[in-house]
Every structure is written in structure tokens, then in C-alpha cells.
Specification:
- The chain has about 150 residues and is of the alpha/beta class.
- It has one domain (about 25-150): Response regulator (Rossmann fold).
- Helix content is about 55%, strand content about 20%.
- It contains 6 helices and 5 strands.
- It has helices at about 1-25, 40-50, 65-75, 90-100, 115-120, 135-150; strands spanning about 30-35, 55-60, 75-80, 105-110, 125-130.
- Strands 2-1-3-4-5 form a 5-stranded parallel beta sheet, with helices on both faces.
- Strand 3 (about 75-80), helix 4 (about 90-100) and strand 4 form a beta-alpha-beta unit.
- Helix 3 (about 65-75) packs parallel to helix 4 (about 90-100).
- The longest helix has 22 residues, at about 1-25.
Amino acid sequence: MASHLNRLRWLAKEYVLWSELLVDFRFQIRVLIVEDNPMTQAGLRYFIQANPQLHLVGLAPSGEKAIEFCGQSEPDVIVMDMNLPGIDGVVTTAAIKQQYPRVQVVALSGSDDPDMMARAYEVGVRSYVLKTSPPTVLLNAIWSAYFARETQT
């Protein structure tokens, strides 16, 4: 029994050391959220702010504002709602990728429509995440997009 307790203490200590190392990591992924629904926007903001390696640089309720924010905040990754008022997420992504090619876009949508997905990938989204997905899927998509950005020449 004592050896089990010692093993658990050792594992707990190792976990604390690793988690401190990860929290102390010297970079943060700069994320812009583009979402028009206030409830979804609040949830995404909380999600981004709860992750120490992510830094929220802005919230845009429309495609037009997203393009404007890109010039001001220089995000690494954009979490982009595909169904926006005015210009939609696909058109917004195309405009952003044309002006800021290193910015990576993660599409966020309530629709699993294959045509919407195809249009999104055609204009350069890195990942397409459904709003019904677990939060870890979005987190992995953000990390994947960031590292794809870093490998671009």
C-alpha cells in the first residue's frame, strides 16, 4: 500500500512539473474569434482565455470587422464562423488569405454540409470544426493551424 501511495505522489509531482513547464512556455498563439452569436462568442472567449498557450487578440461579429481586425491585431489563427451576416465566412476567409497569407483559419460551423466544407477548403481553411464537437477538437485544430503557419516559407 505504501508503494502505491509513493508512486501516486511521484506521478502527481511529475504532473505538476510538466504542467508548470507547459504554462511557462514562452509563446502564445494569437487567436481572433469571428462569430456573430453573442452566446457562442462568449463561450469561445472563455475557452481561449482558459488556455495558457492561447492569447485572444480580438472578437469580430462580422466578416468586414474580421478583415479590419487582421490588419490591427495580426492573429496567427482565426476561428471563423462560416455563417456570418453580410459577407459569409468563406468570402471572408478568401479575402483574409489574399491579404494575409500566413494567417491560418479554422472554420467553425453548425453545418456539416459537404458543399460548405468544400467551399471552405477551396479558399484555404486549415480545419473545419463542427460546433457540436468537443472542445479538444477545436484546440487541436488551432494548434495544427498554428504549426502549419510556422512551417510555411
